[in-house]
Design brief:
Blueprint lengths: L6 E4 L3 E7 L4 E9 L1 E4 L14 E6 L4 E7 L4 E6 L4 E6 L3 E6 L16 E6 L5 E5 L4 E5 L10 E5 L1 E2 L2 E2 L6 E3 L5 E5 L19 E5 L5 E5 L5 E6 L5 E6 L6 E7 L5 E9 L12 E3 L5 E5 L2 E5 L5 E6 L4 E6 L5 E6 L2 E6 L1
Antiparallel strand pairs: 1-4, 2-3, 3-5, 4-27, 5-30, 6-7, 7-8, 8-9, 10-11, 11-12, 12-13, 14-15, 16-17, 17-18, 18-19, 20-21, 21-22, 22-23, 24-25, 25-26, 26-27, 28-29, 29-30
Length: 336
């Protein structure tokens, strides 16, 4: 990719978004913030020059793990320390969706016990990365009638309990890839209940068999697959090694090669490499210092959506025309 000098589209303080429904006409006002930093003209094909970063809701403790629910047109996301999932839609606004979400024991505990990454499985069921319960679990209820009743998908490897599953992604065959840093343990690396001597990236087959992908990342976090499912991308949320890795997979989902995808050490801003999503063209939208980095499949930096907050994760709507972002105590979006 050719090198371009960075150019910036500055976002105004406020703008008005007009939304129409069958029942009535409403005018919703969202405060806007931040800016879009562009490093390549290719960015203009992904993010309109008129795009603005909107603040949809605020006053969370640490927002994370967004997922778009196509049937219903709403977003779910975790608020981890309060152990709850929130729901947001254009029509209904913000509401609490599920509590408890990640820790179902009755014994009080500190730290970050709630759910983190959320995803919809091939059957249309909500799947949660549960910090407090230290597992990947499936909600035993329809999406429109949530309840805190879960079935464990995976919670251990070779008899050792997971630390606190953070994020996950399904392939087209229904196999699940997940990351397992220590953030959900009360004392993290020093927690006496930590059982694995490393922070792993795992694959869970449809039959529930757990395979270790790698134990070499210090803080594996966000995870995503390329459209052809031959490359697995993993973020490392370590201030001493703020990187994204790319793992080449064989037909069995095993790693046959690995490489550094991008090193964010030179970038300034709140946050670290965290959650990520891969669009249908193979571009990677990855939260990192200052906001959301947009990479082409070869690791070329195209743009950075600068939210001004520590941005934890992101999610597209159904047609990938809007990117939702969980940003510390905010929920934001940018209409692309």
């Amino acid at each position: 990719m050719k090198n371009f000098s960075a150019y910036i589209i500055v976002i105004g303080l406020t703008w008005v978004s007009c939304q129409q429904s069958k029942e009535h006409h409403t005018i919703e006002k969202y405060t806007t913030t931040g800016l879009v930093e562009r490093f390549s003209t290719e960015a203009d094909n992904l993010i309109s020059k008129n795009s603005k970063i909107e603040i949809l809701a605020k006053a969370f403790t640490w927002s994370e793990g967004p997922v778009w629910v196509e049937e219903g047109n709403y977003l779910l996301f975790s608020d981890i320390p309060p152990n709850r999932i929130m729901r947001w839609s254009e029509e209904d606004g913000l509401s609490e969706y599920l509590k408890p979400s990640g820790y179902t024991d009755t014994i009080p505990r500190q730290g970050e016990p709630g759910s983190n990454g959320l995803l919809i499985d091939p059957e249309g069921t909500l799947v949660l990365c549960q910090h407090g319960d230290r597992r990947i679990a499936r909600m035993n209820a329809p999406l429109d009638s949530p309840k805190s009743d879960f079935t464990t998908i995976a919670d251990s490897y070779k008899g050792m309990r997971f630390n606190s599953p953070n994020d996950a992604v399904y392939d087209h065959s229904g196999n699940l890839y997940l990351t397992d840093p220590p953030y959900g343990l009360e004392k993290q690396m020093d927690d006496p209940n930590k059982e694995t001597p490393y922070q792993g990236v795992y694959r869970v087959s449809k039959k529930g068999e757990v395979t270790l992908i790698t134990d070499q990342l210090t803080r594996p976090n966000g995870i995503g697959l390329s459209p052809d499912e031959k490359t697995l991308y993993v973020a490392n949320s370590d201030p001493d090694q703020p990187i994204w890795m790319a793992y080449t997979l064989n037909n069995q989902g095993e790693v046959k090669a690995e490489k550094l995808f991008y090193d964010a050490s030179s970038h300034k801003g709140k946050g670290l490499p965290d959650g990520l999503k891969v669009d249908k063209k193979g571009n990677i939208w990855a939260t990192g210092p200052g906001g959301v980095f947009v990479f082409d499949p070869k690791g070329g930096l195209l743009a950075r959506i600068k939210t001004g907050e520590a941005t934890s994760n992101c999610a597209f709507d159904t047609d990938q025309s809007t990117l939702y972002m969980t940003c510390d105590d905010y929920l934001m979006r940018i209409i692309l």
